[in-house]
Amino acid sequence: MSDLAWKPQKNSSIPLHQQISDFMKNKIMNGEWTIGTKIPSQRDLAKSFQVNRSTIVTALEELVADGLIESKVGNGTRVINNTWSLLASTPPADWISYVKSGIHKPNITIIQKINKAEADPNIIRLGTGELSPDLLPNSRMEQLLQIDNEQSLSLGYTEPKGSLSLRKTVSTYLKTKGINASPESILIVSGGLQALQLISIGLLKRGSTILHETPSYLNSVHVFQSAGMNLMGIPLDEEGIKSNSIGPMKRQHNATLLYTIPSFHNPTGTLMSEKRRLELIEACQRESIPIIEDDVYGDLWFETPSPNPLKANDAQGNVLYIGSMSKTLSPGLRIGWIVGPEPVMDRLADIKMQTDYGSSSLSQYVVDKWLCSGMYEDYLKETKEELIFRRDFTIQMLKKYFSDIATWSTPKGGFYIWLQLLTGVSTRKLFDVALREGILLNPGSVYDNNDDQHLRISYSYASIEQLEKGLFYLAQLIKNLSIN
After folding, report:
1. Is residue 214 within 8 Å of 385, Cβ to Cβ?
2. By C-alpha distance, which of 300, 206, 308, 219 is closest to 259?
3. For residue 151, what pLDDT is reported?
């Protein structure tokens, strides 16, 4: 159940408990809270409505007396009836059973908690994998949209693969990465996540096995799992995924393809070496296993450019390459691309048209102008300088507060530091304790269900002041938990 934005009026002549009872009754009568819906706990309601818990108890008692809700020990409080269902001769639709029957798996509980907490402006977000709003180019976006040029803006649907103008621009942009791709081999998508969704339903059979680094971003989203796929992890070292494991894993599990983030891996921040990239390409070609290369962090190298993407050394069309503007220019634009063999792009474009009839034409126009104008490179340089400062500051804070309780490596780009705790404290437990203290974390279990000792620390979102305050308090929480 989403956050309750409504608040009772404390200067009203109507008692607070009555206002709350009426509000909840309307939710039930209007069908927003259907039969079976679980009501938030008394504590959560009191916090959301900013009233005493006794006020909530009185309001709920009225709803119980009206026969609308019921409380059971161990099962919480749920809606059991509504006004019109009391009069109906047949029971209303059981929407809760429909919710539970949907084929797309729900987010894991901890991800749902993270998504909910990110809406709280008072939370210190130490794990959020996006740029701070302060780093986004709002004023330059306005400036760029006022530039007159020969490119006309169309607000209609684009062709199945996306705006031809943008695909030509992306084709030119990819050449700077060593990738030669014609506009016909590029599909514009609504961000990297949609790219994965299209691949999962457009190219793979149910029951297929996907190989990936462990830990992996793939474990934090249920794109492949909901399409009936199995995920199988391959260990990482400091150079990237262990390519010598691919052959045995492919044969043992009859794997269909491999998913990898070679540049500034999510969540570990690892940068795959050039040697390992070539070994990976060779191993996958030898085993006839295609690769999904997720390069959404590829532009965010710091002191030294990253090795060329896997796709740059792909002479056999074995790699599906994913790029995006979400991690650099703006998460809100929702524009990315897939590069691959034309028949594959035709197939995925057909499915995309069935799904959403194409990505936003306005967002495609904006990204096209950014890349064509030269402003993207200037902005990217400034953003990386800010990220370097934030990374170095975060490392200083870790040395100051975590030197005796954790280990880490300094990333060469991207957003993340993979922090390994040495105290034996469960990061699952730490997540809940920290959240109560106003600190939001991304524990290792989000990326590997068996990992209870790592945290993904992001220096890209929280302010410098929040990073210092959050890391100081986090270190204190860890030390207190390890004592207790």
Report:
1. no
2. 219
3. 60
Structure tokens at 249: 């894993």
Question: What is the torsional sign of CA 224, 341, 329, 174?
Answer: positive
Q: What is the DSSP letter of 73?
A: T
pLDDT, tens digit (0-9, with 9 covering 90-100), for 342-399: 999 999 999 999 989 889 999 999 999 999 988 999 999 999 999 999 999 999 999 9
Q: Which residue has the tokens 């103008």?
A: 165
- List the structure tokens of 238: 């400091």
Taking each helix axis as running N to C, give the angle between helix 342-356 and helix 192-202, from 0 to 180 degrees, rounded to the nearest 10: 100
**At 32, which amino acid appears?**
E
Helices 361-373 + 164-175 axis angle, to 10: 40
Q: Over pLDDT 70: what percentage of the chain?
A: 94
- Residue indicated by tokens 């016909």: 184
Do 38 and 1 contact (CB within 8 A), yes or no?
Answer: yes
| 271 three-class SS | coil
| Residue labelled with tokens 């943008």 | 166
> What is d(CA 177, CA 175) in angstroms, rounded to the nearest whole number?
5
- Tally the C-alpha atoms within 13 A of residue 216's C-alpha that lie toward its C-beta: 25
Read off the pTM. 0.82
pLDDT in tens, 153-203: 666 677 889 999 999 999 999 999 999 999 999 999 999 999 999 999 999
